[in-house]
Amino acid sequence: AQSVAQPEDQVNVAEGNPLTVKCTYSVSGNPYLFWYVQYPNRGLQFLLKYITGDNLVKGSYGFEAEFNKSQTSFHLKKPSALVSDSALYFCAFGSGGYQKVTFGTGTKLQVIP
Amino acid sequence: DTEVTQTPKHLVMGMTNKKSLKCEQHMGHRAMYWYKQKAKKPPELMFVYSYEKLSINESVPSRFSPECPNSSLLNLHLHALQPEDSALYLCASSYPGQREKLFFGSGTQLSVL
């Protein structure tokens, strides 16, 4: 079965430090991978996607993600964390002719002032 | 207008009640989705409508009945729910050519007593 895995339930980082939220995938063929963020009491917001092409994908709010085929990873990164980045982050993949987006278990990011 | 609007925001219902959740978007999206999210869990896909036709039903129990009366509206009719159906119900929409980029509403928090 296809899936994405987020090995960390929570990541803590100091404000101003670089952050990484990890995601590994088990998806057949060419993977369609995405990152979403969910702020408290809100729906999810799309951050970025990898379909094909450059392995470094840039997205919203200064986030980027690196696709690594050999390590089957798609880690989310930001050079300098803000307190306002504190939220729940979901890695996801697309399937079913693109109609279906399936989410990982989520990682809570806490940025400490 | 880049919003997906869901009503009501909160709903409490008994197991014998009939209620409906509503979702509206005016972005010209032709794909609309219902997701269910339990606390501290990822959203799980329930239904997908494409051009007002049901294209995916993820084996959802019949006590949940979706309806897409037009391209801007999506309803979820609820009947004889169980307490375990209590969850956050999220509506989303997307452009036909960008199905990975879902626009989510803030959800309806449903409690079944």
Write structural notes for this entry.
The complex is a heterodimer of chains A (113) and B (113). Chain A is mostly beta strands. In chain A, 0% of the residues lie in helices and 53% in strands. Chain A is built from no helices and 12 strands. Chain A has strands at 3-5, 10-14, 19-21, 24-26, 33-38, 44-50, 56-58, 64-68, 73-78, 87-95, 100-103, 107-112. In chain A, strands 2, 5, 6, 10, 11 and 12 form a 6-stranded mixed β-sheet that branches. A 4-stranded antiparallel β-sheet of chain A has the order 3-9-8-7, with no helix packed on it. Chain A has a two-stranded antiparallel sheet with strand order 1-4. In chain A, strand 5 (33-38) and strand 6 (44-50) form a beta hairpin. Chain B has 113 residues and is mostly beta strands. Chain B has strands at 4-7, 10-13, 18-25, 31-37, 44-50, 53-57, 64-70, 73-79, 87-94, 103-104, 108-112. In chain B, strands 2, 4, 5, 6, 9, 10 and 11 form a 7-stranded mixed β-sheet that branches. A 4-stranded antiparallel β-sheet of chain B has the order 1-3-8-7, with no helix packed on it. In chain B, strand 5 (44-50) and strand 6 form a beta hairpin. Chain B is globular and about 40 Å long. The N and C termini of chain B lie far apart (36 Å). The model of chain B has no long low-confidence stretch (mean pLDDT 93). The chains are: A mainly beta (113), B mainly beta (113).
Question: Briefly, what is this?
Answer:
Chain A is mostly beta strands and 113 residues long. Helix content of chain A is 0%, strand content 53%. In chain A, strands 2, 5, 6, 10, 11 and 12 form a 6-stranded mixed sheet that branches.
Key words describing this protein structure:
heterodimer; A: 113 residues; mainly beta; 0% helix; B: 113 residues; seven-stranded mixed beta sheet
**Computed CA radius of gyration of chain B, to the nearest angstrom:** 13 Å
Q: Could you describe the largest sheet of chain B, including whether it forms a barrel?
A: 7 strands, mixed
Please summarize the sheet with the most strands of chain A.
6 strands, mixed
- What proportion of the residues of chain B is helical, as a percent range? under 10%
Distance between the termini of chain B: 36 Å
Q: Supply the helix-strand structural class of chain B.
A: mainly beta
Give the count of helical stretches of chain A: 0
Radius of gyration of chain A, whole Å = 13 Å
Q: What is the mean pLDDT of chain A?
A: 93
- Which spans of chain B have pLDDT < 50 for at least 5 consecutive residues? none
